[in-house]
Design goal:
The chain is α+β, with helices and mostly antiparallel strands. It has 3 helices and 7 strands; from the N terminus they run βαβββαβαββ.
């Protein structure tokens, strides 16, 4: 398995992964190998197959309380791993790679909001194991979580 920046040729594989593993997400322009300018898109691939995908931005601004550094903040918008590849380091690898890209860009902190609903406790535990810590925000039932990049110490 290899984790790298997504290429336009990965778009159809990303779309298939979304439909198969997270059908509540929109496939957007992925089938055509297109995504919005400024979006960081990384994939985990096994041969030609996309087995994991993460997308996010590096110019976000967490507006709630508790951000340890001023913006810009990285923001993980989506993370999806094929069911057959879960618990094999793919999700953690994608998060680590996104945080590394953010750090190289000068972003010192990355945040995400765990998707609520069924199994939210497991998602929160996974993000904690991947180095993300809850951000105290009394307005949120499930708090946003953040992780400093290498640049942020």
């Amino acid at each position: 398995m290899l984790i790298r920046r997504a290429l336009p040729g990965d778009g159809a594989g990303i779309a298939r992964l979304i439909v198969r593993a997270a059908p509540h997400f929109e496939v957007k322009g992925y089938p055509d190998g297109e995504w919005p300018e400024g979006m960081v898109v990384l994939v985990a691939v096994d041969g030609d197959a996309v087995v994991g995908w993460i997308e996010g931005i590096l110019d976000g601004a967490y507006t709630g309380p508790g951000a340890p550094v001023p913006p810009p903040h990285g923001y993980v918008l989506a993370l999806v791993v094929d069911a057959a590849w879960r618990r094999r380091g793919v999700g953690t690898g994608l998060l680590d790679a996104f945080v590394a890209v953010a750090g190289r860009s000068g972003t010192r902190w990355v945040f995400l909001k765990p998707e609520e609903g069924e199994h939210v406790e497991e998602r929160v535990a996974f993000f904690e194991q991947a180095g993300f810590s809850p951000v105290h925000d009394p307005a949120e039932a499930w708090p946003p979580m953040g992780r400093r990049t290498h640049e942020g110490g």
